[in-house]
Amino acid sequence: xxxxxxxxxxxxxxxxxxxxxxxxxxxxxxxxxxxxxxxxxxxxxxxxxxxxxxxxxxxxxxxxxxxxxxxxxxxxxxxxxxxxxxxxxxxxxxxxxxxxxxxxxxxxxxxxxxxxxxxxxxxxxxxxxxxxxxxxxxxxxxxxxxxxxxxxxxxxxxxxxxxxxxxxxxxxxxxxxxxxxxxxxxxxxxxxxxxxxxxxxxxxxxxxxxxxxxxxxxxxxxxxxxxxxxxxxxxxxxxxxxxxxxxxxxxxxxxxxxxxxxxxxxxxx
Length: 269
What we know:
By secondary structure, the chain is an alpha/beta fold. It is built from 9 helices and 9 strands. The chain has helices spanning 2-12, 53-61, 80-83, 132-144, 168-176, 186-194, 210-217, 231-242, 244-268; strands at 42-46, 49-50, 66-74, 87-92, 114-118, 149-152, 180-183, 199-203, 223-225. It has a 5-stranded parallel β-sheet. Helix 6 (186-194) packs parallel to helix 7 (210-217).
C-alpha cells in the first residue's frame, strides 16, 4: 500500500518508474536482481526499516543512481543502510518528528470478500471412504488463487488457545462477519447457514455422508461430492454463492432455521 501511494504520487508528477519486488511478494514481477542500475537515474526505497546487509548492498549495486528512502524507520543513523542514501524521509526514528505511514495515503480500492475456511484432515472413522486429502489438494490451491481475504474458521473450539473460539456464541459471531464459507465440515455448513452466510460445501466422504445429508435436509444446492470435485465446479458454485441469488438463499435458510428453533422451543415449553 505504501508502494501504491508513492506510485500514485509519481504518476501525478508524470514521472515514469518501475516497481521492483521481492520474488516472494510478486512472483514473475520485476525484481532488484533483474532491474539494471544503468536503466535508472534514481532508486526509491519505500517502507520498512533501514537496517541490514541487504539494504546496505543496494548502495553498491545502485551506486550510479541517486538513492532516496521514503516512509522508513531509522534505527541508527550511522548504519550503512541509512547513511548510503542521499536523502531519507523517515516515518520514525531518533531525533525526528513522526510521520503517518505511507499506507494510510494509498489510493482507495474496492473491498474483497471475507472467506472463512474450515477443512478437516481427520475423520478416520470413514476408513477407505475418506477423501479428505484429495479434497484439500483441490480446494486449497484453488482458493489461494481467489481474490479474497481468507480466515481460518475451524469449527473446533479451543480453551486457552487465542487462535480458536472458545464458545459457540463466539464462533457464530465470527461466522456472521463472513461473506462466504468454504468447508468440508458438517458444522461449517449448518452454522454458516444459520448465520445467513452462503456456504460452498464439499463432502469429503466417498458416496456422501453427513455433509451431504445436511445439505439435502436444508435444500442447499452448493454442496459438492468429493469424488467428482473439480476446479470448474468450485468456480461455478463460488460465483453462485457470491451472487445476489446465493446471498438471498442463505438468508432464507437462516430465517427458516430460526423459525424452526423458535417453534421447537415453544413446543417444549
